[in-house]
Write a structure and sequence with these properties.
Strand order of the largest sheet: 1-8-3-6
Distance between the termini: 38 Å
Structural class: alpha+beta
Number of strands: 8
Largest sheet: 4 strands, antiparallel
CATH topology: Jelly Rolls
CATH architecture: Sandwich
Helix content: 25-40%
Strand content: 15-25%
CATH superfamily: Jelly Rolls
């Protein structure tokens, strides 16, 4: 379901996202116009392997609750990321990666700003400032995943859950 917010509300999606931190008002307005807001209910899938996303999502509201996960042949789910407000996701397909096994599920009611592939290329990937920040985000996510993989292989169960307590 799409909701048209006022201009200030729409610009929030852009102004609160770190990758856009040094854009001027005109640049932010242009990006905000290209990223309409949509709401999704808790439990709703934003994308699935059978309906892969060709858009970039910017999470506006949802209290750290969009999850990207994979499901094994046995039906076990692996959560690969929990996305918090002000964060982008869904970018991997736009950058040429294949994410055939991925799902994104709203764990509570969420509001996202959605940008098409062509607008991502026109507004984001063509701007060196933004491209560099997207690269930084992807690098951090890769490092986090590598650390989680390493922990799952080399640490005992008590060692893995100790930081959670």
């Amino acid at each position: 379901m799409t909701h048209a917010g006022d201009d200030a509300d729409q610009t929030w999606c852009i102004s609160e996202v770190d990758i856009f931190r040094d854009l001027n008002d005109l640049e932010m307005d242009a990006i905000a116009a290209a990223a309409p807001m949509k709401t999704h209910s808790a439990g709703e899938l934003l994308y699935t392997p059978t309906q892969p996303s060709e858009v970039l999502f910017i999470l506006k509201r949802g209290r750290v609750r969009v999850r990207v996960f994979r499901v094994s042949a046995e039906g076990r789910a692996l959560t690969t990321a929990i996305i918090s407000p002000g964060t982008i996701f869904g970018e991997m397909v736009l950058l040429g990666q294949r994410m055939y096994d991925n799902f994104a599920e709203a764990l509570e009611d969420v509001t996202v700003c959605v940008m098409s592939r062509s607008d991502v290329h026109r507004f984001l990937l063509s701007d060196a400032r933004i491209s560099a920040r997207i690269t930084e985000i992807l690098g951090r996510r890769l490092a986090d995943l590598e650390q989680r993989l390493s922990d799952s292989v080399f640490k005992s169960v008590p060692q893995r859950i100790a930081p959670l307590c």
